[in-house]
Give the backbone structure.
Amino acid sequence: MLYHLLYPLHEVFSVFNVFRYITFRTAAATLTALFLSFLVGPWIIDRLSKLRVGQPIREIGPDHQDKAGTPTMGGLLILLSLLVSTLLWSDLGNRLVWTVVGLTLGYGILGFIDDYRKVTRSNSDGIRARTKFFWQCVLALGVALVIYTDPGFDRELAVPFFKDFTPNLGVLYVPLAAFIIVAASNGVNLTDGLDGLAIGPVMIAAGTFLILAYAAGHAGIAEYLGIKSISGAGQLTIFCGALVGGGLGFLWFNASPAQLFMGDVGSLALGGALGTIAVLIRQEILLAVVGGIFVVETLSVIIQVASFKLTGKRVFLMAPIHHHYEQLGWPEQKIVVRFWIISIILALVALSSLKLR
Ligand code: 57M
């Protein structure tokens, strides 16, 4: 919005020319989201505490009873700063921006209803898993169809590290893209079990996609790197910057000992946003590398459940895998910081795939 209001002034004052640059607006979006969350954070924590929107804590597993009553639904803070900042700084005529904003908002509403039920009924069961999954699939299929039916859609799938292997999935692309969005959303949700554990890798992934979206949106850079050139993808850089800024602001309050949890309103929406950016810039497979932590957390649950059903034995002391390390006696902050380090390594591996092919 600011872009539309201020850029035309460059005809009178040349200094307003700066609003043309995506790099400038991305930096501005990051800072806007960061300061918005600093500003609104204490108010939201106060409101949620007064409304007694405290997290019910499960009695099984690692002892988290000291966290009982920590306000949840902090995702509202992230979504507010992310969406306001994106709408202020991006080109509102860009369909990619509206696609990711729409999906993020849709998953946020789904997560909000889930959280609301949990806190008002004071137990850990929100919406039925099947119902949540159904609506996640509907929204993700909507995004997949928007991409697939675009006249400029390139049917070839980019496979990291393999330049010449670009399978054409035809219409199967639609379920694949939807699967990626739903899996990313649930992966972030499963990861969100320790202070700072989910938001760190979310920001690292958003920072990586910031670079990838900029490259995809710049025809010259895309050609040089041999990646798909996506018209308008540069505007997603602004969304990614706002996600990093909003995430940093949230981390201020979510750092151990957390004053605020993001809740499903945050985890479902942020995971969905990452999945959507990956499909929009056509780096679907690379998301599994960039978001490797979410993949490992999800796989640990699948392996645990499958092993228990088939053999009656557990592979991990407890799944998702961060609980395994808690049960081994690792302090919470050690697990969190080590998972961040692994995320940074994975982001670097993902970025190196642009050249190593
Ligand atoms: C959400 N939610 C946290 C908070 C956060 C199928 C099964 C593996 C599902 C899994 C599950 O329910 N995962 C989804 C995990 C909860 O956090 C809330 O939920 C939001 C995210 N959706 O924002 O509002 C608790 O996590 C802790 N937390 C923090 N700091 C944070 O910044 O400390 C969260 C954010 C909070 C707080 O304690 O209350 C959660 O874990 O409930 N289920 C599990 O993870 C359970 N695992 C399990 O049952 N494993 C079994 C089988 C089924 C695989 C096994 O290994 O045999 C464990 N969850 C917990 N305790 N809490 C069991 C032990």
About this structure: The chain has a mean pLDDT of 93. DSSP finds 14 helices and no strands in the chain. The radius of gyration is 20 Å. Residues 22-50 form the longest helix (29 residues).
